[in-house]
Design a protein that fits this description.
heterodimer; A: 307 residues; alpha/beta; Rossmann fold; Alpha-Beta Plaits; 2 domains; 4-stranded antiparallel β-sheet; 11 helices; 33% helix; elongated; B: 264 residues; mainly alpha; 73% helix; disordered N terminus
Chain lengths: 307, 264
């Protein structure tokens, strides 16, 4: 089932001074929840903020709900909800006061009291924004993004720095939004968040989308899984490799720690253990690992630290 | 379906999209009301807009510190303090508040709301005007209690206050939209202090050396206090010269703010 895209980005380029933040990025997001993953500085926020109408593309086109976010901003803004990475609230405003205000800017807002209750913001009382905890500030920003009953919500790292309960509450709300027909674009650093919530994941690196698909599709990644075991150091990996199917790789990662990557099935496990038996090796700590989104992510974006 | 979905008590689609902007008048009204509340809740802002003008008016009217020329001191001081009140709200207060709104992403967040940018600016202006009305009422009552006897054409006074507000708003927004919030805070307070002393508010400009007095007379605060004084104290007609100076500052300030204001 292919619905109309809610976001369609074509060959987007955005530079800041001499630095290219987004470098010919293509992205199509459809109804449902789309997670945008990427290391720091990959261009996630720039891409999302271009969709929100905050930045003008240097080249390329962006359409959100079929509209140009800059030229048709007046038509688009009532239809989207935005949660910024931080801030966005008068430092002297109370949580409920700010939420009620944003509700007043919309024609058919949600029931503010129910939303306050739902996100546990009732305990903020008369506390002003600058004195709220980080988690309360995040939840208020989330509430502000959804209170206008938008068709599409942009959440920029909605659970960064939240405790597990607050994280869970945010996830539940995103699931309810999705169930009620609201589309969500969320950027995140958390792989489990993307795996839990997203129908579709786009991995961004160096200003481009380098992989996109459902979490399952991405994890299947050519159906490769990992089998690990430990044994005597210095086993003949070449001989082991000869016993394995052609598309497998085998390596001794650290002395005595072996890793086989390939299509891990019962047959492969039997092949490895029988090779060990023939060579008088007792394989210990034998384990089969499913490819996680994190593996895919690190494989695609590299393991070196980003500045 | 997921656990949380089946656990929902209501089958109604609470979050089903139903987007739409509120009517413009309601948005601008709500925004102006919020901004005014923020201002009245802020202690430093109240110090600037209410406490200092009130203290200056009362103190200098009752204690003979500055030679304000012939006649009742309050007749000289009241117009100057009204000018100061306009500056404190339209320039200092607005610059500091807007500078921090920009710094904390409030302007950015509102820019993605249904409220258009010009609507936000209209709301800010409305909020400034409401605050000024409160100030003028308060200061007028105090001045009358101190024996003030104003003259002149109310229309001329209104025109001066409006043009003064426009001039100071332009300069305040220019500062808030280009400098860092901390720099705006420091600079706006410093300018307030300097213009309080050198802008003919409580110290008559003829106390300064002639050359300095001439230059100081071109400042918006001097034009506003001089204009208000010529009408309210001396019952003069339209102070075209002062209105011209204020008009020029308004055009320059608002033009530069529109050109250079950065929203984040």
């Amino acid at each position: 089932m292919q619905s109309e895209p809610v976001v369609q980005v074509r060959s987007l380029v955005k530079r800041y001074g001499g630095k290219t933040a987004v470098d010919g990025l293509d992205l199509v997001a459809r109804a449902g929840v789309t997670a945008v993953l990427g290391p720091n500085g990959a261009g996630k926020t720039t891409t999302v903020e271009t969709c929100e109408g905050y930045r003008k593309p240097d080249s390329g086109t962006v359409h959100v709900l079929g509209l140009d976010p800059v030229r048709q901003a007046g038509d688009l803004r009532p239809r989207i909800g935005v949660m910024l990475q931080s801030g966005g609230v008068y430092s002297g405003a109370r949580a409920d006061e700010m939420l009620r205000h944003v509700a007043k800017l919309h024609a058919h807002p949600l029931d503010v009291d129910a939303l306050i209750e739902r996100l546990g913001l009732g305990s903020c009382g008369r506390t002003t924004y600058r004195r709220l905890s980080g988690g309360q500030q995040q939840r208020l920003a989330l509430a502000m993004a959804v209170v206008g009953r938008p068709e599409l919500v942009f959440l920029d790292e909605p659970t960064a720095g939240l405790d597990p309960q607050a994280r869970r509450a945010t996830w539940d709300l995103v699931r309810d939004l999705r169930a009620d027909g609201v589309s969500v674009i969320l950027t995140t650093h958390y792989m489990d968040e993307a795996e839990q919530l997203a129908d579709d994941v786009a991995i961004i690196d160096a200003g481009r989308v380098i992989a996109q698909g459902s979490p399952e599709e991405l994890c299947r990644g050519g159906a490769e899984n990992t089998l690990r075991f430990t044994g005597r150091p210095g086993l003949d990996v070449g001989s082991l490799l000869k016993a394995l199917p052609a598309d497998c790789t085998a390596a001794e990662l650290t002395p005595g720690a072996y890793r086989i990557v390939g299509k891990v099935d019962p047959q492969l496990l039997a092949t490895v253990t029988s090779w060990c038996a023939q060579h008088g090796v007792m394989p210990e700590k034998i384990s089969v690992e499913r490819h996680t989104l994190e593996d895919v992510f690190l494989e695609l974006t590299g393991k070196e630290l980003r500045v | 379906m997921s656990v949380s979905e089946s656990a929902r008590t209501s089958t109604a689609k609470t979050y089903a999209p139903k987007p739409g902007a509120a009517p413009l008048s309601r948005m601008i009204g709500a925004q102006a009301a919020l901004e005014t509340r923020m201002l009245l809740r802020n202690g430093e802002q109240l110090l600037l807009t209410v406490v200092i003008p009130t203290l200056l008016l009362t103190l200098f009217s009752t204690v003979d510190i500055v030679d304000t020329g012939s006649g009742e001191a309050v007749d000289f001081l009241a117009p100057g303090v009204l000018a100061l009140a306009v500056m404190s709200t339209a320039f200092t207060g607005q610059a500091i508040a807007t500078g921090f709104e920009r710094r904390y992403g409030v302007l950015k967040r509102l820019a993605s709301s249904p409220l258009p940018r010009w609507g936000l600016m209209a709301a800010k202006t409305l909020s400034v005007l409401v605050t000024e009305i409160l100030q003028v009422v308060l200061l007028t009552v105090i001045a009358f209690a101190l024996g003030w006897s104003p003259h002149g054409n109310p229309l001329a006074v209104l025109l001066l206050l409006v043009l003064g507000t426009a001039a100071f708003s332009g300069l305040g927004l220019l500062m808030a939209g280009t400098l860092k919030a901390e720099a705006t805070l420091a600079a706006a307070n410093l300018v307030f202090l300097l213009l309080l002393v050198g802008g003919g508010v409580i110290v008559p400009l003829d106390r300064f050396p002639e050359a300095a007095g001439t230059v100081l007379g071109l400042l918006p605060i001097s034009a506003l206090s001089d204009g208000l004084r010529s009408v309210l104290q001396h019952g003069a007609g339209m102070p075209w010269g002062d209105l011209g100076i204020l008009g020029a500052w308004a055009v320059l300030g608002l033009g530069a703010a529109a050109r250079f204001f950065r929203w984040e």
